[in-house]
Amino acid sequence: MAGALSKWTLFLANALIPVSVLLFCSGYFPYKPILPGAAEPPVWGKAPPVFDKVIIMVVDALRSLIRTGAAWPFTAHASSPTVTMPRIKAITTGSVPSFSDVVLNIAESESMSTLIHQDTIITQLKNGLPGKMLMYGDDTWLNLFPDTFDRFEGTSSFFVSDFTEVDNNVTRHVSPELAQDDWSVMVLHYLGLDHIGHKAGPKSSHMIPKQKEMDGIVEIIYNAMLSEAHLDSTLLVLLGDHGMNEAGNHGGSSAGETSPALTFISPKLQTHAETTELKGRDSPIEAEEFEYYRTVEQSDITPTLAGLLGVPIPLNSLGVFIPEFLGLWDSEVDRLTMLLENTVQIQNVIKMAYPKFSANGDKINEVSSANGAELGSSALERLEYEFIAAGLSMSPDEKSTRSHYKFLHSAQSLMSGAASSYKLSMLYSGTLAAAFACLVSAAVAYYTLPTCRRSSTFLFITSMLHGGMMFASSFVEEEQQFWYWITTAWAVYIHLKSTSESGDPALSIRSIIYSISFAAAGRFIRRWNQTGQKFAGEPDIVHYLISSQPKLLWALVLLTYMVNCQSMIRSAPFRGVLGKSLWTVLSIAVSFAAIIFKVSFTAADAPELLAPMTLRVTEWGFQTSLVFQARIVFIGIALLAGIFKFSGFTSRGVQNAGRKRLLHEATTLFLITQSRATNIPLFMLFKVQASIVELLDLNSIETTLNLILMQHVAFFAFGGSNALSSVDLSTAYNGVSDYNVSVVGLLTFVSNWAGPIWWTSETAINQSRMTRTEATNRIALLSFGTTMELLAVMAACTMLRTHLFVWTVFSPKFLYSIAWALANHLGMNLLATYGLSL
User: Fold this and answer.
1) Helix (H) or strand (E) holding 296
2) pTM for this one?
3) Domain GPI ethanolamine phosphate transferase 2 C-terminal, which positions (predicted)?
């Protein structure tokens, strides 16, 4: 009866996990209302356009490193998340994208990510300018703006090893299109520089040549502006959608990631530069935090382009017209007209978010008699008074300009911070649901204390320490350090435990050897990939193997495949000579196909990893597509795993444990296929540690605790972190020819959680003889660890929702916690492991 009660209690606790996540997400990532429709020209008229054509040249991941040139340069602040789709949305709508756009950026779903129902600068340019719309480059633009461009060619960012072809496909259209006079807008989005960053970092030897290549394209465009009559009133906007950190990734909030370049280039600008500070000043040699030039918000691009090209500012824009460009209008009235349009437009956005925002007569009188004093007790009230002050300053002079910009910048600051309002009731409900699930799991786990008090205490202390860390941004960024050090403490613990339980000196020496070997393997695992924020890009084993020992890397890779193949052969589900022979041939064939696919994939994704010996493998005539090769491997693995189900029903079937070992090895081959070549040798180190754990004769509770620790260590060892920039999408499309969100989502999870999945499978095999009571205790401990982390993260996100790093540190951690709780715990720890263990 007690066992049945525990079972249903645990079912309730785990059922509450997705409930708590849904409740919390609905309050944490609420729908952001937008003004419907498209902006119309203001009734008082618009300032005349300065340009009649625009070329928007996006160099993906271009940091603010421009130091020379006669153009008008800025550093454009890109708020987190610094990934392509949200940044393009910011550039084209002028608003602050929702954090949920990160998921859409990964999903690349055309129907979910489109901007056809929002007012954007692209829509306004299409409606307001007479010429055609052109787009060449990253196909994200085509997903965001379907049926918008008249001539286009999209390029995929799938294989980030492509540094040249992906850009050549864009550049080959530039000169022919510059010679045409039937277009008004040309968008060029280059991916090569971003690819170099992902593959080799910002200090790669490929970086300077790529920047020179981009500079050459700018030269081609600028020379065409000088020589072609139809381009004499064209504006070139050179910008990066985001930057990159010192490891070459992006998605976070480091200075390198949030400081993309922004430069406006046109012969027209030279004639007006005398009236600005942009003429004749020295380009700085060094600058802190990549701010080489004055910083503007990336959303400021939207109203600036709208004003310069004479189209309405998009309805939901939070951007502020860049003041340096006011001098392009000779008339003070035109300048004030531009600012007035920007002021009224952003006031409409404020009124949508704050319906009580008003400018009544009493406040007008207060402003008139305030003599410049600050009015209003709240940010919204102060904004109301600033709006009134701007409205009262209608004379075309410097004072009026200052009044308008004071209101605009205050409004931008307020609305950018309010872009993600919270539903506190839903946050509290989700947190309480997670707390209840945690308490229920702890209550069931409590019954394990009398039988294994020390191990349970170790788990409790670990969970408490880890939960407390979630309230400190630096600890969240460097979470891997906690798991690395706590695992070292675990190695000491299991040694002391084995020594205390054995009075035999020989057994004590053996325990020392086992513990040291376990810790030594862990040391290699820790140093395999540098991760986190502080040490990202620092030397590690992977960089050593890539830079100087590619042959050693592939020797380790082949050894891993061979060990896996040998294990599958030894797990043959047949006892007869013929059956074993056929099984051996099948195992070798599938493993060989997997090796060929991995080499072919690496040749396309990371050719610098291929030693000359392995490079020749790709020249053997394997001309089949990678999609077909991947499907062959997956079918072979499915065939191997399928025998797990049916071998027990044959007269020559093997024992239950052997069948499970077969399934584990087939799973391992699948995980290897979904891992980067540089991470494949880690499976050998995991196997060494698992063998040592098996020799230590740990009980079921201690084995479960070891699983929790090793899952987290393995995740970070593969290069994972709590930053969105560490999500590995390189193998997310293996075997996929047409986009499928479910398949891509599953493969993405497997790619990034390959290490934890392996430990789940391995632990289930070693615990195949667990009783139902032991299995219940194990699930209780796993549930407690998961719900405790989820509760801590939810509490941290709620309490620190106004923290400076809430969207750059805590929110990404929450997304990772969802993956740990739903996919890893419910999907792997419970469903897969429970089925294998019993």
Assistant:
1) strand 295-297
2) 0.81
3) 419-833
